[in-house]
Amino acid sequence: MAEHLLERVRPYLDRSTEERIAYIQSPRWIGHQVAVQAHDRLAELLSRPPSLRTRGLMLVGPYANGKTMIAERFAVGHLRTAGQQQVWVVQTREGAGLAHFYGSILQALRAPTGSSRDVGRKAEQVDHLLDRLKPRILIFDEFHNALRGRARDVEAVLGFLRRIGRQFDISPVLIGEVAVYDFVNQTAEMATRFDLHAVPRWQYGEEFLALLDSLESALPLARASDLSDEPLARTIFQLSEGLIGEIVAIVSAAASTAVRSGEERITKSGIEALRYVPVSNRRRAPVRDDLM
Predict the structure, then answer these.
(1) How far does CA 48 lie from the centroid of its chain?
(2) What is the average per-residue pLDDT within 143-149?
(3) Which H or E element spans position 197?
(4) With contact defined as beta carbons under 8 Å apart, do 221 and 262 qualify?
């Protein structure tokens, strides 16, 4: 029974409805090829020899496509095995200006930030912490937030990225949308400092179908759903628009409904009953008119 499930998932069939749904809706790592390759490239940065001109990495792709999870899993995996933390994830704050940018770094390094907007003081505090903590990699998530300010502030941010390599032997990793790629490649000098690892939308094909099979094996439903079969796979792909975050959200919502209803499998009609609106259509969704 339940041969379609991973062995570690099968015991959840005996859990309560609430426990099964909680398991279905919990975040999960999906080790697809692009994600594994990204981890390999991050590992290369971590193990590189010292350098006065470090190279960095850009993880660039659309929203809701797993970039943050790739970075966070790598950072957590490093923390579990390292004697000293050398990988830090900075959640780049929304809001223009250097004060916001330095505040993001201070928060990531668990330093008090206070209410001061004294940019010089924050910069000195950041330098002091980098010298003391000696990180090898700084990962800037949602880095496009730092690129929306005045031109001189953006140039100062890029200058900071250049300087931390020379002064502290740190490799910066920039995560964000295509704006990150555009800004870095505005000058040849910055372009030579960063390699690109693209995290594109999924295309409909064998890799996408394999992803659906992987998801199905990890969701505790008593009956096989055959997610990779047409037309079910095509329906999921069209609704998700090739974004892995949306793929997981759709399948998880359908699986939760199947548990509650006793259907114990995901069907095309079950997904259609969700009335799931693709991201690109949400501004035009009928429900929006009811909010006016």
Answers:
(1) 24
(2) 88
(3) strand 194-198
(4) no
Q: What is the mean pLDDT of the chain?
A: 92
Residue 279, token pair as written in the block: 């991201």
Superfamily of domain covering 33-184: P-loop containing nucleotide triphosphate hydrolases (3.40.50.300)
pLDDT in tens, 103-139: 999 999 998 766 667 888 899 999 999 999 999 999 9
* pLDDT at residue 130, as a whole number: 97
SS3 140: strand
- Tell me the β-bridge partners of 57: 173, 195
Residue-by-residue DSSP string for 79-113: HHH-SS--EEEEEPPSSSSHHHHHHHHHHHTT---
β-pairing, 56-60 vs 194-198, is parallel
Query: What are the tokens at 75?
Result: 């950072």
pTM of the model as a whole: 0.88
What residues does each domain of the chain span? 10-28+202-279, 33-184
On whether the CB atoms of residues 221 and 1 are closer than 8 A, the answer is: no
